[in-house]
Amino acid sequence: MDGFRVVTLYLSLCAFLNILGISNAVCDILDWNNWSQCDATCGGGSRFRKKNINCNTNWIPFTLENCLKKCNITDKEWKTNGVEHELCKPNCHNGTYNYIKQRCTCSIEFSGNCCEKDNDGCKYNLCLYGHCIDRENDFYCECHAFFEGKRCSEMKIWAIALVSAAALALLMLTCVFLFCIKKYGKENRQTIEPQRNRHIAKLTTKPRARPLY
Questions:
Q1: Which residues pair with 50 in a beta bridge?
Q2: CATH code of the domain containing 150
Q3: Is Signal given among the entry's keywords (predicted)?
């Protein structure tokens, strides 16, 4: 109904300008009007804009439909060339717009159709290696000594170097330990083997025969 009133008002204005002789020619299609408001408060939606047509005020009834008919413009042609639609820019306050699902996808600390509601940021254990402190529309992580970052997920450079050095030292100690075991075992076998051979030799030696008198 509002659209009909706007068209009627515009056609009345055209009629007034026609009387003054400063209007466009009859059946001229004029420039685009401004865009309408989006039909969704957030997360997409669409809007439209229309063109106006200059009509003769003597055409009765003085309506858009009759004007289009008198100008030999079909309803389909008018909707194709006189009306334009487009998607509104997504407005997800604290998230991203999912074009497949046609709705906002909120980050974990927010909810709501427009991701406008603040959740308890500490509810979801967002701090991987630290203590979480909830704040308005945000959260803060007090990280353990070795970690840093928004969610305490990044190890500090000096901590990485320290852990790397400790791992290298452990690897070297393991190698030395294995080397010592191998060397000691080899020397021990070399010591035991001759003793075993001498014992076998004693057992296999025949006793000397006693002389007969």
A1: 83
A2: 2.10.25.10
A3: yes
Does the residue 138 lie in any domain?
A: yes
Question: Is residue 209 in a domain?
Answer: no
Question: What does the angle CA 181 – CA 186 – CA 188 come to, to the nearest 5 degrees?
Answer: 95
What's the total number of domains in the chain?
Answer: 4
Bridge partners (DSSP) of residue 83 are 50
pLDDT at 43 exceeding the cut of 70: no
Given a contact cutoff of 8 angstroms between Cβ atoms, the answer to whether 166 and 146 are in contact is: no
- HSE, CB side, 13 Å, CA atoms: give it for residue 163: 9
Q: In terms of domains, do 101 and 136 share one?
A: no
Of residues 166 and 201, more confidence is placed in 166
The domain in which residue 41 lies consists of 2-87
Whether the upstream peptide bond of residue 61 has omega within 30° of 0, thus cis, is yes
Return the number of other C-beta atoms located less than 10 Å from residue 141's C-beta.
22
Give the span between the Cα atoms of 40 and 36, in whole angstroms. Answer: 12
Is there a contact between 102 and 41 (Cβ–Cβ < 8 Å)?
no
